[in-house]
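lol forgot to send this yesterday, sorry. struct tokens for the thing we talked abt
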């Protein structure tokens, strides 16, 4: 009986040792730092608590016109709309690696076709365009359609809503890196989610957006303003926020 008890006790000790050894092994791969900052996520309309709001529907204070003056784009009902002929607008603040949320709407009254229908654009660093275009039943060259990286990458699908409806872009952008002698060491990369659908999956940019000719890189600052294009169409934007990465 005494032997039995001794055996049971040693088995218990043995099991405890195994558990402790496993726990120690488990702990070896636990990483405790850095502890992610606690933020409050957005709820579909409100941005995340750590976002910089670039347009809240009431003011263009964060923006400047291509002319260097205050933007003349119109604000109505929580949205800003291109005022054709007044030029594009850019953020006063420069940005590098970012997560950008922007909502856009092509005019409900359809005018023109191809590239002439609801054309605008989101220019990351003012140089790399994610195309904005009414591509609902509107044929154009696919590397110039909505959510294309203009003249570089065709979107994986056409996720356009009908003109007059609000659409979302969630863009994750990694700025290019340059060596001291001005060569690109890490090309820019972009992910685009259009209306909740992944359409650009971390694609590598070939250089700046060019209307004519091939894209190339030219060394630039780490942070540059984001621009919205005046392409002559009454495209509207709202709920624009950004998180620096
Ligand atoms: Mg455009």
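and heres what i got for the seq, position by position
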């Amino acid at each position: 009986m005494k032997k039995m008890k001794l055996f049971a006790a040693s088995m218990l000790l043995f099991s405890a040792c195994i558990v402790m050894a496993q726990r120690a092994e488990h702990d070896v791969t636990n990483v405790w730092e850095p502890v992610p900052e606690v933020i409050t996520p957005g709820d579909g309309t409100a941005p995340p608590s750590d976002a910089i709001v670039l347009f809240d529907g009431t003011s263009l204070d964060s923006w400047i016109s291509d002319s260097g003056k205050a933007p003349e784009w119109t604000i109505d009902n929580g949205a800003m709309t291109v005022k054709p002929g007044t030029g594009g607008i850019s953020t006063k603040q420069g940005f590098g690696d970012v997560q950008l949320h922007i909502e856009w709407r092509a005019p409900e009254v359809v005018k023109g076709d191809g590239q002439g229908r609801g054309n605008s654009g989101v220019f990351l660093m003012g140089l790399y365009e994610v195309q904005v275009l009414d591509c609902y039943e509107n044929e154009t060259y696919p590397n110039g359609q909505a959510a294309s990286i203009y003249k570089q990458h065709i979107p994986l699908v056409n996720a356009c809503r009908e003109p007059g409806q609000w659409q979302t872009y969630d863009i994750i952008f990694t700025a290019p890196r340059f060596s001291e002698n001005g060569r690109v060491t890490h090309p820019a990369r972009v992910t685009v989610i259009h209306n909740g659908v992944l359409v650009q999956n971390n694609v590598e940019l070939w250089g700046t957006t060019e209307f004519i000719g091939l894209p190339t890189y030219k060394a630039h600052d780490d942070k540059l303003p984001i621009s919205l294009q005046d392409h002559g169409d009454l495209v509207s934007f709202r709920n624009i926020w950004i998180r620096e990465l």
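The chain has one helix and 15 strands. anyway ping me if u want another try
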